[in-house]
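Journal club prep, shared notes

We agreed each person brings one worked example of a sequence with its structure written out as tokens. Mine is Sigma-54-dependent Fis family transcriptional regulator. I'm keeping it raw so we can talk through how to read the token line rather than staring at a rendered picture. Sequence first:
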Amino acid sequence: MPKILVIEDEAAIRRVLVKILSEENDTYQVEEAVDGLEGIEKIRDNDYDLVFCDIKMPKMDGVEVLEAAKKIKPEIPIVMISGHGDLDTAVNTMRLGAFDYISKPPDLNRLLNTVRIALDNKVLVVENKMLKKKVSKNYEMIGESAAINHIKDMIEKVAQTDARVLITGPNGTGKELVAHWLHQKSDRSKGSLVEVNCAAIPSELIESELFGHVKGAFTSAVKDRAGKFEAANGGTIFLDEIGDMSLSAQAKVLRALQENKIQRVGNDKDIKVDVRVIAATNKNLKTEIAEGRFREDLYHRLAVILIHVPSLNERREDIPLLIEYFTDKISNEHGTVKKSFSDKAIMQLQEYDWTGNIRELRNVVERLIILGEKEISEDDVKMFASK
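Then the structure, token by token:
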């Protein structure tokens, strides 16, 4: 049942609003507040789906109520009630986050239409918030070790900036998770995160993949095609395994970073792009630079912020948490009853040499869930998790 709060110091106007809302839909639960202070107390103590708030009130005016309410419950749509002389203020409240404003005396159709739109919008906001939480949970970093907590702190500090980030670490450690977290916590999260695995694309095609091409640029270019940088415009591009990129492509990436411009293969026309670049590699790029396989100037453009993701062997204290996480996830995926791991089984897994890191651990946990007993024992681990 939608809950609506009416904050209005004029008793006559307040009664009219409550009467209209109550009679229009008997599923609306309508409550009243006689001034801004009472209104804020009610907002703090209740979950409202919509608030109507007068602008001119004693003790606390409508603008102050709006600003305070948005800090307490930012998702609540707030409709301002304005007298004729308050219209300029009402318009300004829209910039402060008001959903809409209604003039006194309230027009019936305008009022009811605003209520319907505001309530529908609230549902969408909540659903979107839940969806974002669900998406972000898919890329959750599991662990409480000092190394993982350091990475989480770095992400919190860096995400809201446009600083370029270079993520290093062995294969299977979760470098892509760091990239996803950086994007999701940034102001660019509404834009796309475009991933490019530089190691999986042949060197002769990497430039076309990144920057696009025009028809006739090479034999198989039968039509114009936009590249990944254009697809990521307004968002983030994640260049995974950048240490495997050809020197020719590196030169073009460097220009894109320096000038925020790209050129499609076969064309000399500049295309302006607004892209945040996050890169990752399992290689030692300083060694690659010394051996002439990676550009030093590109390295310094990319490595504004360095985040190193440790191997699983360096954070063994996180293994119990990771096992619990993968057990929940895999049981849900398979639609099976969740199995448990004995303490000795977990200790046995903590002693393994995890050359494949998190990716290998997940595979082993899945194998044990499928083949092991209801409680996975040390013997199960010895039998099914052996290298």
